[in-house]
Amino acid sequence: MSLRTMTRGDVVVVSPAGMLLGGDETVRLEQELRGLIARGQKKILLDLGRTTYLGSTAIGTLVRVHVSARKNGVAFFVCNIDKKNENILAIFKLINVLNVFPTREEALQALAEVDLVRLEKLAQEGGAQLPGEEKRGSRPPGDAASTAPGA
What we know:
By secondary structure, the protein is of the alpha/beta class.
């Protein structure tokens, strides 16, 4: 697995390529993401557009990084997940926990709108929720799942 990291404004974009099976490649990805959090990066986007497979361990890694990000007042978003992996996240109801966006552009736009002061305050209170999540779950605006009754 190769791992690209680039900066777009105040967002660090991490883009793994290949399969995340749960071995060294998944450990490396988690170390990279946790390292960004530890170094104080406040906006992180994981772009899975070059990832061909997410194993269960990799999905667990996404959840652990998401929890760590929340506890540290960090906005952690995921984009470009393929339909098969999106369906797996939906089955386990993780699609409503993780901030998943269909494209990098949509995720970057959402990250641009994140209020970091509010996010940090919510993290300190132990209930960090990004603005708009209380209305839409964690789905992007306009997604059918976010507008369904009870969503």
